[in-house]
Amino acid sequence: MTETRPQVPGTLPMAVVDGFFVLGLFSAFMFRILIVFTSWQPQWFRPVWYAGVLGYVLFFGFRFYISRKRRKVITTFGLAEKLEGREPLGEEDRKALLYLVHSIRKSRENINYLFIFVLSCLAIVLDLWMHG
């Protein structure tokens, strides 16, 4: 029997990464803008809320998939143990580490977190202004 070697996955195309990034921003915006619709256009509250929820379902499902994929690479190749034990890394180990580095570098999650933070602060200020 021949032993099958684990395959190093590839990163997704930037169009896919950017598409989910925009979806995350859209969903964050939908939830923060609810404060306006509650007071000024209450009939739009539910459609906006559903748009935010459905967007987040897809966005966080995607983020879960990426996180799981990264963890699987770390486990499959025993990367943490090899690095902790200062073992030499083989060619496949290097490819696996390179995949992780490229995957993290391509990610826009840091911008998404900043966007959510800023929008949340603005939503609080807007609510205080509208009801203060």
Pick out its properties.
elongated, 5 helices, 132 residues, mainly alpha
Number of strands: 0
Helix content: over 70%
Order of helices and strands: HHHHH
The secondary structure category is: mainly alpha
Q: Please, how many helices?
A: 5
Biggest sheet layout: none
Average pLDDT taken over every residue: 93
Poorly predicted ranges: none
Query: End-to-end distance, in Å?
Result: 74 Å
Q: Could you tell me the radius of gyration in angstroms?
A: 21 Å
**Residue fraction in strands:** under 5%
Principal-axis shape:
elongated
Descriptive account of the structure:
With 132 residues, the chain is mainly alpha-helical. The protein has one domain (14-131). It is 78% helix and 0% strand. The chain has helices at 14-39, 45-76, 79-84, 91-106, 109-131. Helix 1 (14-39) runs antiparallel to helix 2 (45-76). The protein is elongated and about 65 Å long.
Task: Lay out the secondary structure.
Blueprint (H helix, E strand, L loop, with lengths): L13 H26 L5 H32 L2 H6 L6 H16 L2 H23 L1
Helix pairs in contact: 1-2, 1-5
Short description:
The chain is mainly α. It contains five helices and no strands. The protein has one domain.
